[in-house]
Amino acid sequence: MNPMLKVLIDLPVLERIRHYVDLAPGEVSALGIVERDDEDLLVTDLFLPKQNCSSASTDMDQSEVAKILVDLEARGIDPRTLRLWLHSHADMDTFWSGTDTATIAGLCNDGFVLSIVTNKHGKMLARVDIFEPIRHTIDKVAVEPLFPEYGLRDACKAEIEAKVGREILPPSRSADAGGMACATSGTTSRSSGPIGSRSPAAHVPRRRRRLHCRPPGAGGDAPHGRDHRRGVPRVPRREGRPMRDEEIYTRQLGLVRSTGSRRRRSQ
Domain for residue 161, yes or no? Predict the structure, then answer.
């Protein structure tokens, strides 16, 4: 059995499950017919035996279960197809309790058992327990509704072919040319992307101007070095104006020479 199998529930059965769970004062159990369809499991019928239930338990009458099996055989249905045990957790979440696991083990037969737990909020959790040739459990099996087929596919196909035409649109050269022109000129391109989008090639970041700040409370020109907040080199100033590059170089060169001369004198 494929681990990727699905459980498909017939729509009338799905509606009965919803009503049983919604109308029951507490938990409720039901049995169902399961058929194999390739690797999927189909739930085609549902039976509600007599039972005693509370807000946290459900106990089916075994004589009622035996009666369901006899009725199936009388109708020409293989009783071994009664492989679904469905029960609800009322308002609680869907999970497998220890009692659920023990009940599933007691349903051991010559093949497999499909178990579904649901609640009043519409949640469903399904598992398949295989008993032969080896014991194995496939949990969290997908559950989907089984929509009926009315044989309308061929008629719908003929109607589509007769009434729905297909028009192939040629590629827009003007849009491509406009997009290339915008990318070349550095303007915004609205033809090569969504509305209001910009072409990546057309986006040119603007160069930011770096401001040189003085320390708060400092009067006049700040000494040479780096700004104490931003680490930005300050521009040396002389007589209220920025110094030129050659003046900065001359001053630095004079400092080096004067430092060297002092070292020589000290030696």
Answer: no
